[in-house]
Amino acid sequence: MDNFEKNIEPNFLARLYLVSNYGYIFLGGALGAMARYMLMEIAIINFPNEIGQLVSLFVVNLLGAYLLGLTIRHPLFNSGCKNLWGTGFAGGFTTMSGVTVFMAVTDLDEWIWGMLIAGFIAFSIGFRQGRVAMRNQEVEVA
Amino acid sequence: MIESTLPTDPLFAIAVIIGIGILGGIASVVRASVTTWRGYLPWGTMLVNTIAVVFIGFWFAFYPEESSVAWVSALLVAGFAGGLSTFSAMAGELVFYFQRGRMLQMIFTAAGNIFIPLTGLLVITASF
Q1: Cβ–Cβ of A30/B21 closer than 8 Å?
Q2: What is each CA distance from B127 to A34, A131, A137, B89, B123, in whole angstroms?
Q3: Which of B3, B56, B116, B122 has the greatest number of beta carbons closer than 10 A?
């Protein structure tokens, strides 16, 4: 019986951990996809042109990049929260397919390169804020 | 002029948004599994972005013109393809390469995530 538990329990816990991680990612991805769709629909209804679509792409991608950067080191986000808000929500909220299709059908390519640079900066800001918060917490604990 | 894909019936619109959520969630789980594949470059991220764009290319190649199926387009394009592709992970990879001074990998990652899916889309649209 002891051998049985030793052999089975770690596998079961590992499987449970994996399933719960995927559950968080599924939930976050679902929320992110719905939020992105509604935000982009609001933009299309109010500004039914290329600029409206470009602005909505900028907003979702920069917010998502910032959030993913923040979740990596911020002490508020434990493992489950990272999967929910980082991999799940931020990943589902941002879209690269929308960017590529937009690039293929419009002549606004230079804005897409600008979006890449802005995404880089947004992620860096989020990551830095998360790291500062982690260091502050470590100082408080010490 | 870009048209909205949201149905006018409020209950149907809510059902479509929930459907987008379910497909987006499934696509996110697939993305999370595939993006673990990385070598010299983050191949997994490039692969999910390319698959998402090629999928959109296929869908619009066979897309019926009637506006009555615009909601199917919303489910597949905004839900599945949107949930599968990711900008944030790519931005994160660019930052990590930059922090480690790996400029060549950073440039290849940025260019690869733009040009590989774009090439896939152009091939699909030219083929059909």
Answers
A1: yes
A2: 32, 48, 56, 30, 6
A3: B56
Q: What is the reported pTM?
A: 0.89
Q: If we measure between CA atoms, which residue out of B82, B25, B74, B73 comes closest to residue B53? A: B82
**Amino acid identity of A37?**
Y
Report CA A80 to chain centroid distance, whole Å: 13
Query: Based on the number of CB atoms within 10 Å of its own CB, is A31 exposed (0-12), middle (13-18) or buried (19 or more)?
Result: buried
Check CB contact under 8 Å for A116 and B56: no
What letter represents residue A16's amino acid?
L
Q: What is the ipTM of this complex?
A: 0.91
Buried-exposed string A114-132: b where 16+ CB fall within 10 A, e elsewhere: ebbebbbbbbbebbeebee
Predicted confidence (pLDDT) at residue A1 exceeds the cutoff of 50: no
Read off the tokens for B23.
């497909």
pLDDT given for residue A21 in this prediction: 86
Using a CB-CB cut-off of 8 Å, the residues of chain A touching B13 are: none
